[in-house]
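User: Design a sequence. Structure:
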């Protein structure tokens, strides 16, 4: 199987299908059968791990194919896969990717509630738990919200793990890293005599999605305070879901938009770094 993304799609189908299946089973058939929910929850977590593993296999295949192309010592035509692989082979851009990935992962963990710090609340008294301890909850709620695990590390610090949040943490942080990787390369190789190039649609899109959490702050600044508050209160999780979908679409599409600008750089001989990648003129 080559870079046709069959493994990737298969992994996504497993993750989405198992999430829907677990939600339907727990909420409609096993709500009162607590002795079974633990086993079903374990099977669900295993299926998610299998889905992520399959996606990882697809990514590994892409890397191996790009490495094989590189070993032929022939020029490689420019596309998103070849460009990302070429940049990841360079320490400077590899550092940009991993710093962006881990930096954004920390921001996302705090904003989404994965990392919990409540200095005014003693967890042991408020939730009647031991410190440290782990509390597992299998039922019942929205898709991807259960089973979840609460890790009480200290009296004021803990970690809350939801299947959906963990998947989004991996996906969004990786996409942010890729976006900032491409943005850095594009900016460093932009035409020196054309400062307006930096304001192109692709770069602006990438910069905006590079900190997608900041988009919420951006929206709260351009909308009247009462309006944004009313919107969040009125629509709640629906607002968050819509915003999440928009963020993911931007993060997925912006690398292709940035690639269009990078093609312009290659065609006009603006690339100042050594590379075996070429584009058709």
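Assistant: Done.
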């Amino acid at each position: 199987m080559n870079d046709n993304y069959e493994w990737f799609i298969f992994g996504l189908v497993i993750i989405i299908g198992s999430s829907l299946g677990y939600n339907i089973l727990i909420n409609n058939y096993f709500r009162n059968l607590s002795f079974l929910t633990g086993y079903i929850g374990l099977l669900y977590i295993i299926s998610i791990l299998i889905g992520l593993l399959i996606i990882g296999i697809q990514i590994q295949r892409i890397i191996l194919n790009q490495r094989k192309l590189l070993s032929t010592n022939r020029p490689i035509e420019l596309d998103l896969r070849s460009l990302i692989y070429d940049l990841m082979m360079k320490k400077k851009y590899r550092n940009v990717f991993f710093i962006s990935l881990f930096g954004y992962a920390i921001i996302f963990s705090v904003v989404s509630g994965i990392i919990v710090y409540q200095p005014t609340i003693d967890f042991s008294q408020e939730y009647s738990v031991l410190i440290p301890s782990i509390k597992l909850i299998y039922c019942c709620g929205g898709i991807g919200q259960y089973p979840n695990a609460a890790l009480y590390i200290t009296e004021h610090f803990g970690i809350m793990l939801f299947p959906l949040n963990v998947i989004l943490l991996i996906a969004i942080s990786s996409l942010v890293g890729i976006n900032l990787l491409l943005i850095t390369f594009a900016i460093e190789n932009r035409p020196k005599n054309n400062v307006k190039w930096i304001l192109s649609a692709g770069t602006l899109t990438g910069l905006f999605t590079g900190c997608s959490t900041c988009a919420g702050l951006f929206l709260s600044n351009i909308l009247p305070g009462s309006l944004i508050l009313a919107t969040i209160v009125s629509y709640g999780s629906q607002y968050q879901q819509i915003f999440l979908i928009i963020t993911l679409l931007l993060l997925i599409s912006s690398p292709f938009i940035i690639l269009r600008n990078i093609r312009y750089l290659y065609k006009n001989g603006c690339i100042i770094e050594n590379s075996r990648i070429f584009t058709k003129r």
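The chain has a mean pLDDT of 75. The CA atoms of residues 76 and 277 lie 5 Å apart.
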